[in-house]
């Protein structure tokens, strides 16, 4: 079993209260900010690259299951540190489920990043993943389906972007409508004509329309 790290001794009670308040008191925090956390876990991330895929997923699940939010961030950092080794099969076996565990925008959007990196390197897998997530009952998985192509720029698959948005267009959830606007706004930097046409042809919520048209 890989040696595990204990972040508890590095906590700060005052910072923990501030961080918990920022996250609407949904999760307990140790009070370790991002730069400090990264410095503490740097050796662990390096060692993780020698673990087997099963060891990696076991450690990710272990840390993700601990109470304090910094441990969920650590678990996601482990996935990101091994992004070149993690496969779609690993996501289907383990990591997709994390999108619905202790879920909030911070964890979901952070988990999206290694998935997006994987799909950018394996575009033949993009359609399968987007269609899988966009039809899920989970609003968080639908959010990832919509936003997974953020910053793909000219490599964005317009058809899949449209499908993912249309699948959730009428869902009256802030994090879904925000995601729709976010995805449209991001793509408008590279293809404003397509975004204008999409917005003209679809009835968007006020939030999605406001966010999506920011750069038009």
Automatic annotation (TrEMBL):
InterPro entries: ARM-type_fold, DNA_alkylation. Transmembrane segments: none annotated. Pfam families: DNA_alkylation. PANTHER family: ARMADILLO-TYPE FOLD, DNA ALKYLATION REPAIR PROTEIN. This is DNA alkylation repair enzyme.
